[in-house]
Amino acid sequence: MYNGLKTRVIPTLLWKDVGVVKGKGFDSWRRVGSVIPAVRVYNTRQVDELILVDIEASKNGDQPDFETIKDFSNECFFPFTVGGGIQSTEHIKKMLRAGADKVSINTGAVSNPQLISDGARLFGAQCIVVSIDVKKVGNDYHVFTHSGTKDSGRTPEAWAVQAESRGAGEILLTSIPHDGEMNGYDIDLIKKVSAAVTIPVIASGGAGNYEDMYQAISEGGATAVAAASIFHFTEQTPLEAKEYLAAKGIPTRKRFTLAT
Amino acid sequence: MDALIIDYGMSNLGSIRQAVEEIGAAVQVTTNPADLASATHIILPGVGAFGDAMTNLINGGWVEPIRATIKNDIPFLGICLGLQLLADDGEEGGQHQGLGIMPGTVVKFSPQSGERIPHIGWNEVQIIKPSPLFERVPDRTEFYFVHSYYFQEQDNRWVIGRTPYCTDFASVLQKGNTFATQFHPEKSQGAGLQVLKNFLNV
Lengths: 260, 202
Description:
The complex is a heterodimer. By secondary structure, chain A is α/β, with parallel strands linked by helices. Chain A has helices at about 35-45, 55-60, 65-75, 90-95, 105-110, 115-125, 155-165, 185-195, 210-220, 230-235, 240-245, and strands spanning about 10-15, 20-25, 25-35, 50-55, 80-85, 100-105, 130-135, 140-145, 150, 170-175, 200-205, 225.
């Protein structure tokens, strides 16, 4: 039967202090702007969703910055996911209270998988996004934590399956070596993880143009695509991305205008 | 135009409060069921599990006051889990009784052709019946959904909008001045704000 769900194009904002930053392979960060103006622009441009990640929090073992998230959420009339430094159900609760719709958990979930189960039970599977950062070790994909600095020894497929069975609502899948390079997503990785689970998989890392997004969806089987550099460093926009995808037969959300 | 938002411990109320303020209405968030008696427009939001939500409504003393305002046809809007709670019952985490306003039951999606569950993202609402809730909202406008369970109606008289995912499920309901949306109007940008405005104009 007809399924009306639209494929999402999700800008990702990585931030450090109050600045939006972007790097390559989770390193060499450049400051590319301020968060609140970026959120406002995305609001007026009707983006489908936004992912915000505090890149310092998990590396330094800091608490998430709930107050700053509150300021961001006041500007957001569209769904947004917040990640970085979430270690406990108390953190999830505070993050949702601060206005996040979903939390993205990475290091905290690998070190304590029970956090996924508890989070899903207490707040609903729909708000628990398990973020999986991946890099090849030899010929095999491995899951990395602490902003890509620690090898967990797990394979992304097995970890995604475990996350799903514990109640995760979505997987945010990022290829570390592809991140910031704008040479296309890691299609092979997306294929493997998308085939392993039945929850939505958001592909991240490597988008350089709209065709890359198309490939991640049509070849890789991604449910949604996330991207950062392409929107920071080029003239390409989420809206144009959706028009491109729609022209190639991928259903995307139309721009809303009030009927008269 | 005032909106009273029910705080029964199941939701991020920040975004719904922000959205109602954005359209220029005054908002009161309450944990006191007695406040329902004087309200002009009531919103029941909610994310989380059906069973926990009903337990909170029961323990908080909300059930009878909610039924009474609905009986008096005070404008009422259930959002997401707030729609599902209006059903007779729900199967999430065991069988639980609902508020029994809308005849039907809340069941889990069964994928028909590889649909991923939860249903997350923007999907369209096909307008089945005209309603003040759809004022200036074109047919097949997209709204933001995030859920794994849906309302399976027993009586299609109250279904005013449907959304195609696994089945053509009932995504918008109206019975008198009681309205409900499975999508999140507070997260659906311009389209969602218009629906909230329409509700507050009822």
